[in-house]
Amino acid sequence: MEKALLEAKNLSISFQMYKKGLKKYQQQTISDLSMEVYREELVAVVGSSGSGKSLLVHAIMGLLPDSAITKGSIYYDGEKLTEERLKNLRREKIAFIPQSISYLDPLIKVGKQVQGANRNKQSKKKQKASFQRYDLREDFEKLYPFQLSGGMARRVLLSMVDQKEVDFIIADEPTPGLDLEMALKTLKYFREFANQGKAVLIITHDMDLALQVADKIAIFYAGTIVEIAPVSDFKKGGEGLRHPYTKALYKALPQNDFQALPGFQPYGQDRLSGCVFISRCKNADENCKNKISMRNLRGGRVRCCHAS
Ligand SMILES: Nc1ncnc2c1ncn2[C@@H]1O[C@H](COP(=O)(O)OP(=O)(O)OP(=O)(O)O)[C@@H](O)[C@H]1O
Ligand code: NI
Description:
Order of helices and strands: EEEHEEHEHHHEHEHEEHEE
Helix content: 25-40%
Bound molecules: adenosine-5'-triphosphate, nickel (II) ion
């Protein structure tokens, strides 16, 4: 078996929180999450707001705050990620595009920021080329972040990726603020990147765009992955999809009449120990109160005891 370039295994993340009277409790935000990204793959993570998508990539990048308690393991290229290893990987092998544009340093001109700490002729050349790729005017390099629009700042963040010869791109919502043409161009560039024997993990709210470029879609709900499906399953009228939440997301697409799913995703302590989707599922029964694990089904994976 080929080994995954990135693998998360039984990952759980909780936060130490305090109630009135300084009573401590642990708020579970990610539970029992496993996923792999192989070379030549572009995997898109899709799911509702607050479901834990950014936390997952922060865990991979070692960017969780100190109050986070992490269980489970993350492997890169078959070896467990340690703090020391992450430092090197972040510098050389993995490019991270954060969700927040506040990641840009407000006091440094963006051209310099894109070039990074070791500026030389080469880094300058690369910065100019990536500004061109993302339709950023040459003289924008002299601007400070506060002088940029949201979409411009997003394109500056994207430009940073080209500075290094990385193997893996992790992008947390790379397209907000970009017009459709630029969003598609960016994702197609990621696709080509993956095709060169590298790999990409993107988080996106835009299922339509994800379906155009990804190999697999990982569906996030209430702190875990409920389904991993090959993109082709979304193309045959959604017949091949496995989890009721994925089916609901599919029906909510514009071309499928925007059918909304009633109800809300449970948060933190509202989550029960059984199926995370129990409160909104029309098939829910007594079996769904038990712990539901991910299982293989028809070339994908699902966390639902009724899926067949
Ligand atoms: N430092 C923290 N302390 C406590 N809870 C946190 C912390 N950071 C995130 N959370 C909680 O973790 C959950 C998941 O947050 P996360 O940012 O990963 O969501 P997301 O899926 O990326 O959402 P969005 O699509 O809106 O970006 C949220 O309920 C959030 O309140
Ligand atoms: Ni997020």
